[in-house]
Hints:
This protein is of the alpha/beta class. Helix content is 39%, strand content 20%. The protein folds into 2 domains: 5-167, 2-Layer Sandwich (VC0802-like), CATH 3.30.2130; 179-398, HUPs (Rossmann fold, 3-Layer(aba) Sandwich). Strands 1, 2, 3, 4, 5, 6, 7, 8 and 9 form a 9-stranded mixed sheet that branches. It has a 7-stranded mixed sheet with strand order 14-13-10-11-12-15-16. Strand 13, helix 9 and strand 14 (312-313) form a beta-alpha-beta unit. The chain is elongated.
Amino acid sequence: MTYEMILVRFGEITIKGRNRNRFEKMQLDQIQSVLGGFPALTYERAYGRVYVRLNGESYEQVAALLKNIFGIVSFSPVVRVAHDLQEIREASLALLQGMTPAPRTFKVSVKRGWKQFPHNSIEMNHLVGAHLLRNTPSLKVDVRQPEAELRIDIQYEGTFIYCVVEKGAAGFPLGMNGKAMLLLSGGIDSPVAGWMAMRKGLAIEAVHFHSYPFTSEQAKDKVVSLAKRLSFYSGRIRLHLVPFTEIQTTLAQSGHDSLIITLMRRIMLRITEQLAERNGALAIVTGDSLGQVASQTLVSMNVIGRATVLPLLRPLVMMDKQDIIDHAHRIGTYSTSILPYEDCCTLFVPKNPAIHPSLKTVEQVEAKLAESMERMIAEAVEGTEVVVLSGKGEQKQSVAEDRAAPPAESGVSAASVGSEDDWF
Ligand code: ATP
Ligand code: MG
């Protein structure tokens, strides 16, 4: 069966009025940018959906990209006909007879969104069903578990007939809910947290703290690969690489071994807050999951979180590790995340990290280090290197350019989707 068009359904945009219009336009822009590699496609917008006319492009190739676009709840290859019973019957028959393997049972489901159509859904079920049965002797009706469900969607702009519904990534169009900074380590969790944040409509800029030369070039490359992977879903991603060596060595020498992770995390948040301000981000996303390690007990999260006034978004906080791992496989980050290169935190990890750090003690230690820390934080921010990643390659940016950076773009490019792990 060669299809002429795809019906794309939007997901969570429940907002009404003018904003809805703006968000739907955003969604369409994103679809067009993702499908930019297919020049023959044409688009038509309707309420809560978009029609993509294939004009000879391959349905399978277009569908593979559509599956990863945030905000799309589902899509279907459809045949479009006029509001005419005879046309609907003929197209339905052709569609069913064109299916391989040929279905033995079917049911008809009719949705009449355009109420001026002369027959209601129940009448249409019978009118079309009877025609199919008359012309295909081997076919039977099964309303419970049919091998084919023929759907007829009667809308103002036309009648759409289809049997297949494919799931999209759902969520919101990328960037619809603003921008956040993602704390991206080399681990399994934070890339998954980043994907989830993007799925909820947040544009993301990634921030990674490295302790070169204590951490290797490979450790940095690994984070670049992870960010690049995320850029497959966003079209482009900016990765801030923050030099953290001086801060870490100073903390390691401060004589407060058990608090070092807590102190480090608080400084990471302070630096990220400054980067957020420069880049117009209003929240910080982390891969924290409750109880996973010492820094992720409720007491630790509390003491660490107080270092910033920005909302801390932790998409994985209630998830089990296995579910996070499964997710990492699905988004194609797992195989990179498990590469062995050490992270700056693992290097400095004490034997007995505090699981119940005291905010008072932490603040006292910080007060002693305050002056030199302020300087080191400022230097780390200034020394931050920005790498812009997309499927099309990477590009370095200086701090000065970073300051003048435009808001993150949205849209996955056709060229950017590779294949690793298992995609959905
Ligand atoms: P992950 O698998 O994401 O590394 P984790 O289970 O190893 O998480 P931690 O090492 O405690 O957990 O880190 C908790 C969170 O802190 C990470 O998910 C990430 O958001 C952030 N983080 C940790 N290390 C770094 C780093 N070097 N640079 C940026 N963010 C970091
Ligand atoms: Mg980690």
